[in-house]
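Protocol step 4 of 6.
Sequence for Major facilitator superfamily (MFS) profile domain-containing protein (Pieris brassicae) entered exactly as in the expression construct, tag removed. Do not edit the line below.
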Amino acid sequence: MKILMRADTHCSIIVGESDYGKPKYTFSQVLAAIGVSLGSMIVGFSSAYTSPALVTMKNSTTISVSEEDASWVGALLPLTAAIGGIIGGPLVDYLGRRRTLILTAIPFAIGWILIASANIVQLVLAGRAICGLCVGIASLAFPVYLGETIQPEVRGTLGILPTAIGNIGILICNAAGKYLDWSTLAYLGAALSVPFLVFMLPLPETPRWYLSQSKTEDARKALQWLRGKHAKIDKEMQDIALSDAEIQNQSSFRDIFDKKYLKSISICLGLMTFQQFSGINAVIFYTVGIFKMTGSSVDENLSAIIVGVVNFVSTFIATAIIDRAGRKLLLYISSVTMTITLMILGTFFYVVNLEATSLGWIPLTCIMVYLLGFSLAFGPIPWLMMGEILPAKIRGAAASMCTSFNYLCSFIVTKTFYNLVKAIEPSGAFWLFGSICFTGLFFVIICVPETRGKSLEQIENKLTRRRNRSRRLSSIVNIKPLPSGC
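Step 5 output, structure tokens:
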């Protein structure tokens, strides 16, 4: 037996040399991923809401909405989500990952009820602001929770489940929006908070957070639940404890500017930049409006539903293959697919200006393939990798910064989309987005590491260029390094 002493506490972890068997993939991890993903469904619903809702809102007799008001209804959610991203960092560190997610459920419902019952646009904006704060906080907590609870062999598959279920939220919103007005649709959004809360309540906190709070026995119980009743978890507990022993002191926001963390944070910020400036939220928020611009004979609401179905199906394709194909290969395919389809879409809009409207089937096809490419990699992988490559000491603060940055980019794209269309025409806007996607391909080739099948500790060691970590840490925690054959 080996006794692992943590440097900052008097507790110990007993590790048996024969207990280093790899834990088996368990149904408990699936339940954890589903519980978190139901929150992502609300995020997806919130993002898609403006596409069908603004059409009925502008024609409503119970509320008056100008074009400027409508642009703020769409843009306010990502703007306040950026603020939520800043708030979320301290929350996941001090309250815990699970408790932070649970605390978003009720405000989500309140925000949607405010929108549903509004008779003036200011109440709609207030509801969108509340939902936006929750979106920012939850989007940060999703990858952190799953990154710390799911074993490396299936972290890709289960880690992008929130994106897949989030796309179900988009599909539900687009499908229901064909038949429901903006108010009834908002009540449906409020109802989605209930299953999320019900699923999250029985889930455990992450073992890493428990250890950061010196709750070793709680960490062991949580990890045992996640890996299965009969799984051997001692080796994994030791790895987590070694990582936590190095952190020792609570991290501060200043730590994210440490030179050794620069590479990890830069990769995350780069992925977030190319994700948002690919134009995805312009497409999701204004799907109906885009199809109206094309002059296509295909019903714009039906087109939005078809787009939602493609978005949903394509993410499950990514879920099935990500742990086999790897992150980088899928990002390559995603970049090339989005570049080609956006360039074709831009060309279509240029041709439409020349009155060649007989090609009205092209925009639907292009957007379907574009969303297929986006959902395959550039949609889920930046969030997945945020939970993978950010070092443990700065994970909360850095995830907060990256999430806030993501939604700030989303706000810029969403708020300026129609202004961009007026300035450089729809063709120019989509050509611009396509050029950004092409640039993103080279960013992935040069900068993004492959994380498939690697533990969080292995990824951190590589990105921060740490060597002989377990030997160096053994002097801190007063243990001998593990035999190489373990």
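Step 6, annotate. The longest helix spans residues 395-447.
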